[in-house]
Amino acid sequence: MSKSLYIQFVLAFFLAVIAGQAGFMHAGEVYTWVDKEGVQNYADVPEEDSELLKFSYTDKENEAEEQSPEESLKDKKQARQKKNCDNARRNLEALTEFDQITRIDADGNEEVLSEAEKIQQRKKEQRYLAVFCEEFDSEEPESEEYDYY
Question: Helix crossing, 115-132 with 69-97: angle to 10°?
Answer without folding.
Answer: 150
